[in-house]
Amino acid sequence: MTRYRSHSIEFARRIAQEFLAGETLHGLEKRHDISRNLIRVWVERYQAGAFDEDAAAADLLQQYEARIAALERLVGKQALEWEFLKGGSTKRTASEKRAYVGDCRPEGVCIAEGCRLMAISRSAYYGAPMSALDDTALVEAISALRDEFERYGWRRMQAALRQQGHVVNHKKIKRLMREHDLQPRTSAIHGDDG
Q1: Rounded to an integer, what is the distance from CA 168 to the centroid of its chain?
Q2: pTM of the model
């Protein structure tokens, strides 16, 4: 079974120096229990200057700079979230929070993150409830449809209103049609007079 080991830079540098000093690959392989290919790779790196202390220090410095940049991004994100929360903390209702996420969200904060910060679900943000019509506006819409289609009952009226974008309970439509005398006109049944 293959063993994976990590060797220090000092060890690799020492092996490369021993090889360049005249030690054979076979001798180094047996003495240190490492493969010949690994020794060759280390020698190439040593000759390229990868094992210099300055190069190791530069690599370490680069790692630290990358970590510092990641921490700065994290701090910046936290600052954006904090400012976002300060502005939105006065908002109480879901509709106010939804409006705040939509209108006042900084450029660095996505909608999902804004919803998480304001403690509303994304479905609550995207599925904003339709504004309910008051009864007078609904009666006007029903009477306009009735003028156009005299024989529409409450079922067809509900379907027509839904096509216009008004979602209304069928019981409310029945009640308003009954109260405002908007019942469908029926034709008289002509029977036998005999």
Answers
A1: 33
A2: 0.35
